[in-house]
Structure formats: structure tokens, C-alpha cells
Design a protein that fits this description.
heterodimer, A: 119 residues, mainly beta, four-stranded antiparallel sheet, 11 strands, globular, B: mainly beta, seven-stranded mixed sheet, 0% helix, 50% strand
Amino acid sequence: QIQLVQSGPELKKPGESVKISCKASGYTFTDYAMHWVKQAPGKGLKWMGWINTYTGKPTYADDFKGRFVFSLEASASTANLQISNLKNEDTATYFCARWVRDSYAHVDWGQGVMVTVSS
Amino acid sequence: DTVLTQSPALAVSPGERVTISCRASESVSTLMHWYQQKPGQQPKLLIYKASNLASGVPARFSGSGSGTDFTFTIDPVEADDIATYYCHQSWNSPLTFGSGTKLEIK
């Protein structure tokens, strides 16, 4: 069965960096784009952008340009999200989600990674 | 950005029918989807492209609409349906989500 397994929770200080991973299994990794979604505590879902898992090309929503980097380890069927110069407002759960072209929707989701930024 | 407006909360009794609306600030064709999110869990796709039931989702869930006005229905509601429901459009970039409708059981 298709699974997206994300790395564990992170506690960081402002100004530090964090890299979270999303390991896919149960399908051909390079056949489906991977999207990233942010959810601040008690808030709704916000789309961050996506990465083409075949070419490695990332696309960022405007609010996530600059400090956010999507990358791949395609040989390991893994997508990564790196956030640099962390700010308090980056405290959130970050989800990866497999995009299925036929449905134009995020069909499968990782369990989420809680990133806490606190001094 | 395309703004999706949902009612914030609804309370229903088990066995009843509930309808959640989602209005888009501009046309999203039929690329509207509905997700269920329970506390501490990831979102789960229920309906894609306005009216298509996702794999393994009970037929109690349904969706309709096109353009700017969409509805999502649960009939009948079960106690396990306590969750927040989000509409989500993928027609316009950036992709956007509604603010969510929290469903409470009376």
C-alpha cells in the first residue's frame, strides 16, 4: 500500500535551520509530484508548493520563497523540506502529500512533522 | 489568490443529513476537493473533482457543484464523523484551502 512516512518532531531556536523528510513507498516515486502543506497550531491548511519528482524542479507559493527549499533523494524515494533562519511563525505541522494528476488532488498524505521554534 | 469561504462550525445529531458549503471568490471549474481532518491526524481525501468519491470512502459522503459554488454532504451522519472538513481548489495557482468547517455531534 502507498505510504508517506515523515521524520520526527523538531525543536529549534530562532535563526536555526531544519530539514524534514518524507519517505514514499508503494508506488513509483518519480511518477507523482510531491506537495508540501503547512498547518499552524489550531489553524487551517496552507499550500506551500510542490516539487516535480522526475525533474527535481521545485515551485514555491509566494509566502514560501526564500527560506524554504524542496529537494529530493530520488534513489531513496524521499522528498525533503528545509527551512532556514527559522522564525517563531514557522512553528507548525508540515505535511507532504502525493499529487495524483488524474484527480488533481492530494490523494495520500504523510503523518506530518511538528516543528517548534522557540528560544 | 482564490479565497474559499466555508461556514465555521455545524452541530448535527447522528442519523441526520448535513451539508457544508464552499464558495470560491472566482471560478475553479470542477477542481474542488473535500478533505476530512481529525485532531492530530493528517487530512484525508473524501471527494475529488467536486463529486467523485475517493477510494474506500463510504457513499454517505457526496459532493456537488461547479464554478464558484460547491456543497459537501454527509447522509447519514455518524458519531465518527466528528472532524474538520476543508474544501480545496486546484484550478488556480496558488492552490488554496477553505478555513475549515468543524463538525460537532449533538
